[in-house]
Amino acid sequence: MSLRNIRAITRKEIQYILRTRSTFILVLLAPLALLFIMAYALTVDIESVPIAILDQDGSEASREFTAQLTDPTELDLYATVASREDLEQMLLDGSIKAGVIVEEGFEQAVAQQMGMPVHIIIDGTEPQTGHFAIDEITTQILDFTADQLAQAGLPTHLLEPVDLRVEALYNPDLEPRIDIVPGLISIVLGMPALSVALALSHEREHGTLEQLLVTPVTKAELLTGKMIPYILVGLINVVVIPAVAIWAFDIPFRGNFVLFFLLSVIFLFAILGMGTIIGVLARTQPVALALSFLVIFFPGFFLTGIFFPLVSMPEIIRAEAELLPGTQYAIITRGIFLKGLGLEILWPQAAILAALGLAFTVVAALIFKKRLG
Amino acid sequence: MNDRNANPAQARGTPDSTQETVIETDSLTRKFKKIKAVDNLDLRISHNELFGLVGPDGAGKTTLLRLLAGLLKITSGSAHVAGHDLTERPEAVKPKIGYMAQQFSLYAQLTVMENLNFFADLYAVTLEERKERTERLLSFAGLTPYTERRAEHLSGGMKKKLALACTLIHDPPILLLDEPTTGVDPVSRREFWSILTDLHVRGRTIVVSTPYMDEADRCTRVGLMYEGRMIRCAPPDEIRSQVRGELIELIAEHWQAARAAVGELPGVLQVQTYGTTLHLIVDNAAERLPEVEAHLEEERIAYSRLRPTQLRMEEAFLSLVDQREQERWE
User: Fold this and answer.
1) Is the Cβ–Cβ distance between B282 and B268 less than 8 Å?
2) Nearest CA in chain A to B175
3) Which of A74, A99, A303, B263 is the most buried (most CB within 10 A)?
4) Which of the residues B107, B111, B119, B159 would you substitute to probe the A interface, choosing the one with the greatest number of A C-beta atoms within 10 Å?
C-alpha cells in the first residue's frame, strides 16, 4: 500500500465531490433533508378521528353517552345518522373512520347495571386509525360507566381491580419521535454508501476506470482511496445529524458524544463496505442506484428494527436482520441517545460492526478485478 | 527472448529480427461469449517500431490493444510486453506502457494540471522529473495556456492531446494508442501525428490503431486486422504492392457519364468514386491507359485529368478486405 497513491485518489475524489453539484448535494444535504422528511412524516401522531353515531335507543341515557363520547377532541363528530346504511356509506367514501351504534335497550341496561349494547364499526383498511378510535371510545365508555356507578352509589374501584401503574423509562410519554429519530440516523448515514457505489460505477461508466487500471495503482489503494472521502463526509454528517436531532427534534442525548462518534466511524466503515461491493459489481450508475436501494435502504427501513421490532420477525429474517449494519447501529444510537449506554454494554454491537466492515471490504477487494473483463 | 526468434512461425511479419522484440503474442485469443474478438493472433513488434493497426470496425483492434495493456483477461495463448508475461505478471508491465483509450477517459472535473499531477502521482514520477516533463508535455500538446482549465471544458482535439500527455507522464517506452485521432479536426490530427513522429524519433515503440489510411501510411509497419486475425502485416509500400491491379485517376466534369463509359471496359476491375474524381483499378495501367483515353474520345466525354497513379492505402485496404470477404464466401 502506497500512501502517496491513496492520497492521490482521495484528493481526486474530494475534488470530484466538491465540483459535482449533484454529488455534493447527495453526500452533504440529502442526509439532512432525509432526516427532516422522514422524522416529520413518520412520527406524526393521530390527533382526531371523524366518527358518526347511530343512536337506536333514543333515550336520555344514550344521548348523555353520545354527548360524552365526542366531548374530548380525539373523536370528532362528523354526523349523527339514522340508519346503518348511512353509516356504512360514510365509511365507504372515507368521510368517517369509525362509527358507533348505540343499540336499543341501552337505557334499560344502564338502569339494570348490565352490559350496555354498544357497537363499533371501523374502517379495516386503516387499522391504525381504527385502533386509535377503539381505544378512545373504550376510554369514554369506562368513564361513562364510572359516572353511572358513582351516581348509583356503587364502588367504582371494581372497574379496575388492579391498580396498574405503567412507567416508561427513557421516553416517559412514549413519543414515537424520541425513539424513531435516533433510529433514522442509521438510514440517513446510508447516503455516503450510496455515493461511493455511484462514484465507483461512474468511473466504470465514463471510462476513467480504464485509465486507472493501466496505472501501477493496486486494488487496495484504489478502493481505500475511494472510500476515505466518503468516510470523511460521513463524519460531517455524524456531527450535523445528531445536532439537528437534538435541537430540531428535541431528542435527549444522555450518552458520551466521543463514544457515539467513534462507533459511528465503525458503522460508516461497515456501510461503506456494502456500498463499495455494490460499486464494484454495478457496471452503470442506474444499476448501482437500484442495488443500493435493494440492499441498503429497503432493509434499512424494514429489517433494522427502527419501525418494526426485531422480535416480530420470523427466525430466518431475524438472523439476516442482525447482520445488517443498520440493525446494530440502531441499537447503538438509541442506546447512547436515550439510555446513555457505554461501551461496557454496546461492545458486542461495536464488534459486530467492525467485523462486518472488515468482511465487506475484503469481499469488495476480492471481487474487484484490476481488469475490464 | 532470443530463443523465441529462432522459431520461424513466430517470426512471421517481423521485418528486422536483430532488433529487440518488445511485444510478442503467441496464438493470442480472447473470446466474448462465443465470438473470438482476437483469434489465434501471432504478432511481433520490435523496439522503436511505429506500428499501425487498421481494419474494419469490429475487427478486434480495441480488444487487441486492451489485451496488450493488461485490461482484458487472455482466453488462450500468451502475450509478452516489455519482457513480462501478461498472464503471469500483468502489473510488471503497467509502468512500461502508456495506454490511451478510444473514449475520453480523464477526469472531466479536474483541471489540465490536476489530471497530469494525478497520473504523475500514480506512476510515482519524482518531483524534479515531474516539473521538467509537465512543462515539456504541456508545451508540445499546446496546453500551456490552459493548465487551470477543467478537462470538461476543453475542445475535442485538446482533450485527446491532454490524454496523450497523461499517457506520457511516466515516459513509457511503449505506447498503445486506440484511435487517438478519431473525432478530431484535421489540424489537430496533423499536430497529433507530429507529436507521435517526434516520440518515434526519440526511440519509443508505438502501436496505434486508426481508421484513417493516410495515418496508416505514416507507420513503419501496418497490421491489417479482420475478424480477430491479422491478415496482412507489412510496411505500407509492401501492403500496397500486394493488391492486385493498378490505379488510373480520371477527373471528368460529367463524371456519371464517364463512369458509365469506362466501367464496362475490358481490364477495368473496379471503379471507385471520390467526388468528381474516379479511381479505376485496372489489371495493367500502362496497357489500359490508351484504351481508356480512346474510348473517352469516342464517347465525346471531356476530362481534365487522366493519369496512372499510386494506389493509396485506402484502396489497398478496401481491396484486401474485399478479397478476404470473397475468399470467405467461397
Assistant:
1) yes
2) A214
3) A99
4) B107
**Residue B188 contacts residue B17 (beta carbons within 8 Å):** no
Residue B121 lies in a domain: yes
- Contact, B271 vs B259, CB < 8 A? yes
Residues A207 and A80 in one domain: no
**Digit-coded pLDDT (tens) for B210-230:** 988 889 999 999 999 999 999
Beta bridge partners of B272: B279
What kind and span of H or E run contains B99?
Answer: strand B97-100
- Give the residue from chain B lying closest to A5, CA to CA: B122
Q: Give B329's contacts (C-beta < 8 A, 6+ positions apart).
A: none
Does B29 have pLDDT greater than 80? yes
Whether residue B208 sits in one domain with residue B256: no
Pick the residue of A203, A215, A226, A370 with the most B CBs within 10 A to test the interface with B by mutation.
Answer: A215
Interface predicted TM-score (ipTM)? 0.82
Is the domain of A335 the same as that of A261? yes
Do A192 and A324 lie in a common domain? yes
Asked if A200 and A309 sit in the same domain, the reply is: yes
For residue B126, which amino acid is it? Answer: T
**Residue B261: domain span:** 244-310
B315 within some domain:
no
B229 within 8 A of B39, measured Cβ to Cβ: yes
CATH classification of the domain holding B259: 3.30.70.100
Task: Give the closest-approach CA distance of A16 to chain B in angstroms.
Answer: 6
Give pLDDT tens digits for A7-59.
999 999 999 999 999 888 988 899 999 999 988 887 667 778 899 999 999 89
Phi–psi pair at A283, nearest 5 degrees: -85, -25
Domain identity same for B43 and B189? yes
pLDDT in tens, A217-234: 999 999 999 999 999 999
Domain presence at residue B324: no
Q: What residues of A are in contact with residue B91 (Cβ under 8 Å)?
A: 216, 218, 370
A84: containing domain: 49-159
- Same domain? For A148 and A197 the reply is no
Are B234 and B257 members of one domain? Answer: no
CA pair distance A110, A104, nearest whole angstrom: 12
The number of distinct structural domains making up chain A is 2
The fraction of chain B above a pLDDT of 90, given in percent, is 56
Q: What is the mean pLDDT of residues A276-290?
A: 96
Question: Which of A159, A188, A222 is the C-terminal boundary of a domain?
Answer: A159
What is the rounded distance in angstroms from the CA atom of residue A214 to the CA atom of residue B257? 55
Contacts of B166 in chain A (CB under 8 A): 211
Q: Is B98 helix (H, G, I), strand (E, B) or coil?
A: strand
Neighboring chain B residues of A215 at a CB cutoff of 8 Å: 94, 119, 122-123
- If asked whether residues B204 and B94 sit together in one domain, one would say yes
Write the pLDDT tens digit of every residue in B124-183.
Answer: 999 999 999 999 999 988 899 999 999 999 998 899 999 999 999 999 999 999 999 988
**Same domain assignment for residues A261 and A352:** yes
A230 lies in the same domain as A289: yes
Residue B2 has pLDDT above 60, yes or no: no
Residue B146 contacts A where some CB pair is shorter than 8 Å: no
